[in-house]
Amino acid sequence: MTDLLQPYHLGGLALPNRVVMAPMSRVRATPTGEATPLMSSYYAQRATAGLIISEGAHPSGVGQSNVGTPGLHTDAQEAAWKPVTAAVHANGGRIFAQIMHSGRVSHPDTTGVRPVGPSAVAAPGEVFTPSGPQPVPVPRALATEEVPEHAHSYARAASRAVRAGFDGVELHGANGYLVSQFLSSNANLRTDSYGGPVANRIRFAVEAAEATADAVGADRTGIRLSPAGAFWGVEEQDTLGLYTALLRELTRLDLAYVHLEGTADEDLLLRLRRAWPSALIMNPSLPMGPEQVGRAEADHWLGLGADLISFGRAFIANPDLVERLRGELPVAPADGDTYYQGGEQGYLTYPTYQYGG
């Protein structure tokens, strides 16, 4: 059976183990979206992961979700990421940048402009703004001729990411953000070539992935998906048919990997595993769900055919997670109250395992 601590070749990278640090928003960037020295230390602490995937970086001003999130669309943002990637590489690690366009999940108080989306349908709930949580507004529906510009924004951000020293990029196609909104049957009510039938609703995702692969190389490009996920109110019809069609098109692009979240039942996820012939990263848990993933879930999915396993909250509280998994040591729980509060507490203050204590 495949072991979690075995090496793996992913695209052009030799990974020392199959443990992936999942992308997680921690809102420690500057108000103008630059990475900070805190972020350099945070990622460098976790460089023993086979691969780190950074928190989502917005590819344009209108694509920003919350305050405190980093970007990859200005020269200053690009330059600010260089110490982060350098710190990870100095500690022997590898890091991909996740590129995340929020679409309708944003607010004018954060970006200065009205959010955009496939259709003028608001997401439920509240989004964080500089003045606190506010209801998510109705987005402006993108005109047909505008859609390719937003698809190509992922590619432009990817080029900046590689120049900033990232080893590759992951497109955030999950969790109710822009790619997910185009896949959705209730956030996407379009009647043009980007809406309606499955072939049209997957078009945006495919165009974004194709443009990114052309810009930085398919072997440096992955995508994260959350089949049947209901984040930010998105719904999907015929999830199996939708994602099978999407994976068929992505197979043509020869991407480095697909990163699936455990948002659907196991049978559906296994069908998607069979539909994807290349590297699969599996995150066995629901984002922010009740369970923190451990070794048992990782081994289960490696046995079912996943190639790598991503861990989220376990990496927050355990910078030495790989060593803890290797030594079958206790994995500490994360403190949810400090996820987004800013500063060092709950960010750089989690210790490595103390032997004999």
UniProtKB/TrEMBL annotation:
SUPFAM superfamilies: FMN-linked oxidoreductases (SSF51395). Residues 4-329 form the NADH:flavin oxidoreductase/NADH oxidase N-terminal domain. InterPro entries: Aldolase_TIM, OxRdtase_FMN_N, Oye-like. This is Alkene reductase. It comes from Nocardiopsis codii.
